[in-house]
Amino acid sequence: MTLEIRPFTEADWPAVWEIVSAVVTGRETFPYDPAMTAASARDMWIEKPPGRTVVALLDGVLAGTAKMGANRPGPGSHVSTASFMVAPGSRGRGVGTALCRDALGWARREGFAGMQFNAVVATNTTAVALYEREGFHIVGTVPRAFEHPAHGRVGLHVMYQEFAGGHR
Questions:
Q1: 5: how many CB neighbours lie within 10 A of its CB?
Q2: pTM value?
Q3: Which residues contact 53 (CB under 8 A, 6 or more apart)?
Q4: Which CATH code fits 3-162?
Q5: pLDDT tens, 2-42?
Q6: pLDDT digits over 40-69, tens only?
Q7: At what angle do helices 95-109 and 125-133 cross, to 10 degrees?
Q8: Domain coordinates of the chain in residue numbers?
């Protein structure tokens, strides 16, 4: 198995949209509108520099994507954020972990002071465990803030990892 992470190119959009659409319409892990169009999804997912959007290729097939940038503008711009989506057929094969590690490396190289995830669905235990393995901590949970199709209203975690030596 070969796993490559590289910057997003325009030619990637159809495969990225397929992943985004599958994840968002599943309504289990992202608080995005399941009725979003390809155009609105593209505007939301493709980061403008200095942010970054990448894709993960598993044995040459686009298996996941990530976007990263400053969590907030102005006085909050020293903290980064990132979002990750993995194709349903590629889950459990290390794609999410590789994307998370890539985003953390990027944020450190860019001099951010830390990385914050604003809305991790509490029932997405696979993602929560992955983020905790990579050094994130749950710093708070907004109760019943996400309408899950099977579990009803569940919490959204805010997760954070502080970096040593960030200079932003």
A1: 19
A2: 0.95
A3: 7, 8, 45, 46, 47, 65, 66, 67, 68
A4: 3.40.630.30
A5: 999 999 999 999 999 999 999 999 999 999 999 999 999 99
A6: 999 999 999 999 999 999 999 999 999 999
A7: 40
A8: 3-162
